[in-house]
Design a protein that fits this description.
With 251 residues, this protein is an alpha/beta fold. The chain contains 9 helices and 8 strands.
Length: 251
Amino acid sequence: MDRKILKCINTIDEFDIEELDRLQVGIEIQDFTEPNLTDEEVKHLTIRYNKLFSQFNGVKSLHGPFLDLKPASPDLEIRRVSYNKYLRTLKVATQLDMDYVIFHSQINPYLNDPYLIKLNNIQTRDFFHEILDELKDFKGTILIENIFEPTPDLIKERIDMINIPNIKNILDIGHAKLGSVSLEKWVKELKNHLVYVHLHSNNGVHDLHQVPSEIEILALKDLFRKYDLNPVVSLEYKSNDPNREIEILRS
């Protein structure tokens, strides 16, 4: 089975087309997570990436901003700022013809009142409907990433409520490892919307973005087989030579 694998880069200066071609992988760019980028800086960065992508035919993914943003905030000003940041990101993604755009779920797992959970999900649904109505040229897939949720239930409810065909789940393996249920539980519950995985590891206490072990990768592959999934796998960790993990994923 052909598996799409991506390498994450933090800045455009790490973009190495020769390496990507040699490894036969796509790319996830994370420059745009920086919360204080000005419109001019975003424009300049977009122009530079556009030139690089003219020579690149792999899968392309963009990680959007996430710090202090909340599409479902009861504060209208915070929602307005969040909307503008998301909109700017999706405009960049449209200009760069990105296949995927990643946003954090922004779910507060300590908010456990059923009414408020439903209200937040409705507001998030309306937020994305509004933003995609405004940006009809966007052709990629929006991915909602688990962050602090201890189980997959809250993020599954949110995706089900949003109910837009090109909004799916990205399962962050490292974040799930900090939760309270097994990785299989995450995969099983999210499988209907799961199209992308962030692969990295940690000590079960802190989000360290460590290189995953062979055992961890093989266990993940077993879950893919068991639930008949073939998501994009993005290597979200620092490695001078990711050949080992890529070979295990493709073997």
